[in-house]
Design brief:
mainly beta, nine-stranded mixed sheet, four-stranded antiparallel sheet, 3 helices, globular
Length: 283
Amino acid sequence: MFSAHEKLKVRNQKVNLDIDFAQKQLSGNTQLEILQKKIDQVITLHARQVHVKSVSVNGVAARYHLVHNTPLDKICPSAHDNHRETRDLLNFTISYRRAYEKADKGELYIEIPASDPSGNPLVPKEPGENETGANDTSIGIWKVDIKFSIKNPRGGVIFAGGLPGDVPSHCYTDGQIDSARMWFPCWDRLDVSYPLEVRVSVPDGNIVLCSLPEVETRVKKGKVRSTFMSQEGFNLPVRSLAMAAGPFIRLPDPGMSQRIVHYCLPHVNAEQVTLHSTPCDLL
């Protein structure tokens, strides 16, 4: 039996996000080109704390099942279980590894439709090669589109500020080991990398920062939309992706020319930010 990692390969992924600071919400869609390497009617991806609105495969609505799995909640026995609680490092390590091995198998299961609305068999956009090297329409490239939203996330993306007397509303990714799947559906493994394109829209007066190179930023109808894209031939695992958005101000480092730029919230003293590193620094 093949694992999900052996059965598929993500060729590229596009992520479109709209950030609502007031509602502490992300909404949008993601598009993936997936090479199904083995005959299987199910595509498995990673997604946690995500509300999936709809899924389509090659433009055809698809059935899906989302497993709400939070591995860290299951590492230690619950107080309601009839198990003796263990707090030694060995048992914690065993439970920790077991929990994450289960999570790495995937949480979002998408059924490939058998046919399109006209009743014609649904086949990949591009045929794949079977074990003999011949073209096989039962395997190949599938284009998957997932519409989703996340509200009041518990991790992955942190919303902060906005209260009376507080700092301005902003958000940032927390960089945890599996945080990518906590703010958009993806194939979230450390040993897998593929081209990424990320587009983020925020209200005017805010900016978006990302660990990917910026391609363009446009302002239209009170929205700032920034696009970031991985460089050709230089792909990183999706869990390496970092993002921050808010009313940040740009502070060039006088000692490092254009190599390093600091970003901070408006209330932070510019001199302090220049002299001392902060969590908002971006290389």
